[in-house]
Write a structure and sequence with these properties.
heterodimer, A: 248 residues, mainly alpha, two-stranded antiparallel sheet, 66% helix, globular, B: 122 residues, 2 domains, 5 helices, 74% helix
């Protein structure tokens, strides 16, 4: 029986030689990322070519996802946050499509690798820091100074606020990665139970139980895949709000 | 299923232009009656219903752990650079514990967000 971890293994497909001591390899993860980007581009560009006043199914799907993210971003950052719409919408679609591709049997879940999710979170946090400092200068660090606390508590609270800020990219990346990893491992283990019971003689009677559980878990995983993309986009817009409107 | 789709798409066909324009007109009237851009209100409405609640539940699951990890990481770096092992780790882990609790309280709405990060239009 296949072990539940082997589905996350990176397999080199094409090698591009070496740079320094590191080998440049096009892996199955890179393949799925390319597929996701091409898929998103096709989904976004092709149905909107017609620009129908009354959208067809695909065009309305595109418009609904755009409106959904635009509404989320607008409600947490206000109207001037809309300049970050390309970033937030790309992140949302990228994570959503990668998560959903991972749900296809034999697919590879790129978002179950923490280095990928951490890179995405780092993009968000670096955007917040760079834009915040460029726009507000030293004012941006007012974010770390809570208002309305006694003077003697300030050093402690500033330290906690700084750590809280550092924890943002960690929580952003760990949440997505852990949910994807745990979900796929659970699916694989329960699916493995079905095989183990079927080959176990009399125990084959019990085999449908884990099968039903696997089906239920698959539905749950699809929900988690969509929800995690949504949570990532929501938190991105909440953090971007800090860059746009830091404390006084 | 088929009948359903046919019913939905009748509005787009050339068969029912009156119906469509009448509906568009009525929608226009309703929107202008409200006196505010339709998208902004629709967005915040949607954000405060079920997907957001479930999303917040997922958020809480890692906020606390992330605070402790961040504290430990900062403490480790602090010790490495200044050679104060193990005091930096001890102090920063405890601060990280506090930051984790801050994160959870903030995410669950028990505490106000830091001064700047309040949503603008709520």
């Amino acid at each position: 029986m296949a072990d539940p971890i082997s589905q996350f293994q990176l397999k080199p497909l094409v090698s591009f030689g070496r740079i320094g001591g590191t080998e440049l390899v096009f892996t199955n993860a890179s393949l799925f990322m390319v597929v996701a980007v091409l898929g998103i581009t096709a989904l976004m560009v092709l149905p909107t070519q017609g620009r129908a006043l009354v959208p067809g199914r695909l065009q309305s799907l595109v418009e609904m996802s755009y409106e959904f993210i635009a509404g989320t971003l607008r409600s947490s950052t206000g109207e001037d946050g809309m300049r970050f719409m390309p970033l937030v919408f790309s992140l949302f679609m990228y994570i959503l499509v990668l998560n959903l591709i991972g749900m296809i049997p034999m697919g590879f879940t790129v978002t179950s690798h923490i280095i990928v999710t951490f890179a995405l979170a780092a993009i968000v946090i670096l955007t917040v820091i760079i834009y915040g400092i460029a726009k507000h200068g030293m004012h941006f660090f007012g974010l770390f100074v809570p208002s309305g606390v006694p003077k003697w508590l300030l050093p402690l609270l500033i330290a906690i606020e700084v750590i809280s800020f550092v924890s943002r990219p960690i929580s952003l990346s760990v949440r997505l990665f852990a949910n994807m990893l745990a979900g796929h491992i659970a699916l694989k283990i329960f699916a493995g139970f079905v095989v183990a019971l079927l080959t176990g003689g009399v125990w084959a009677i019990l085999a449908p139980l884990p099968l039903f559980l696997t089906i239920a878990l698959t539905a749950l995983e699809v929900l988690v895949a969509v929800l995690q993309a949504y949570v990532f986009a929501t938190l991105t817009s909440i953090y971007l709000n800090d860059a746009l409107h830091p404390g006084h | 299923m088929n009948g359903d789709n046919a019913g939905k798409e009748r509005g787009t066909g050339p068969g029912a232009p009156d119906d469509l324009s009448a509906r568009l007109e009525r929608l226009d009237k309703q929107l202008s009656g409200r006196g505010l851009p339709p998208k902004a209100s629709g967005g915040s409405d949607r954000a405060s219903t079920s997907p957001s609640a479930l999303g917040r539940a997922f958020r809480l699951s890692t906020e606390f752990v992330a605070g402790v990890i961040a504290g430990g990481l900062l403490g480790w770096l602090f010790d490495r650079m200044l050679g104060t092992s193990p005091w930096g780790m001890i102090v920063f882990l405890m601060l990280g514990f506090g930051a984790g609790i801050f994160n959870v309280m903030r995410a669950s709405g028990f505490m106000d967000p830091p001064s700047g990060s309040k949503p603008r239009d709520s």
